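Case 194 in the screening queue. Each case pairs one protein sequence with one candidate compound; here the compound is coenzyme A. For every case the pipeline is the same: read the inputs, emit a complex structure as tokens, and attach any notable structural observations.

Predict complex for case 194.
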Amino acid sequence: MRSTLPDPSFLADDPQEFFAAHIEDWGCIGGVEDDGELIAFGVLGFGAQVPADENFGRLIGLSPDRLATVGQPDGVAVLGQYRGKGLQKLLLRWRLDQARAKGCRDILSTCEPRNRVSLKNMLSFGMRVVKFDYLFGGLPRVVLHKDTAGDAAVDMARAAVVPVTPDSLSQAFARGEVGVELAEGGLLMAPTAN
Ligand SMILES: CC(C)(COP(=O)(O)OP(=O)(O)OC[C@H]1O[C@@H](n2cnc3c(N)ncnc32)[C@H](O)[C@@H]1OP(=O)(O)O)[C@@H](O)C(=O)NCCC(=O)NCCS
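Case 194 output:
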């Protein structure tokens, strides 16, 4: 799997225990099979069940009560020959449904900023790119967030394309902008109204 990636750091190197913990305690994992072979999976953690330091809500400073209702899609992969057929979207939709059924308010995920396929898919579900950080042992990542109770309004009239480099992204977040759409040359970012 890793050898098929444009850059191996697109996928965090999650140990076996990470997957076992999600199945047993932290959330769930959705899988897609073709003729008995696992061809795609998507991991989902629940804020009330993952260890506190693994709760993505902490990355954006959510209050303690909201940490408990985080739903976090945390890893997805599709075997090479099955890509481009909508499986990531299917697994994301399934995980968002699971999170909704569990009463999750804040949906949070992370992505390598140059992973345009994954970013595009998450943005298409209304998630916004809200932060850049080095996570999982120093890997560059953007944090995506959706507040299902209602996201802050954005001023699309003032939206501009920002290159997906650590400096440019960090400066845009410091200006109060969020990423709303992929665009030629980067990410379309718009200031939030509040
Ligand atoms: C990223 C990944 C999960 C995407 O899975 P996928 O099942 O191929 O994605 P989907 O088919 O659901 O993607 C659908 C959208 O992405 C687009 N897309 C898919 N593959 C693409 C490609 N190679 N280049 C450009 N766009 C592509 C499709 O056109 C589609 O967009 P549309 O709905 O606007 O037409 C898959 O490529 C993968 O496993 N990559 C390695 C692991 C990884 O990067 N995981 C993500 C960690 S955040």
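Case 194 observations:
- The first strand starts at residue 27 and ends at 34.
- The two ends are 42 Å apart (CA to CA).
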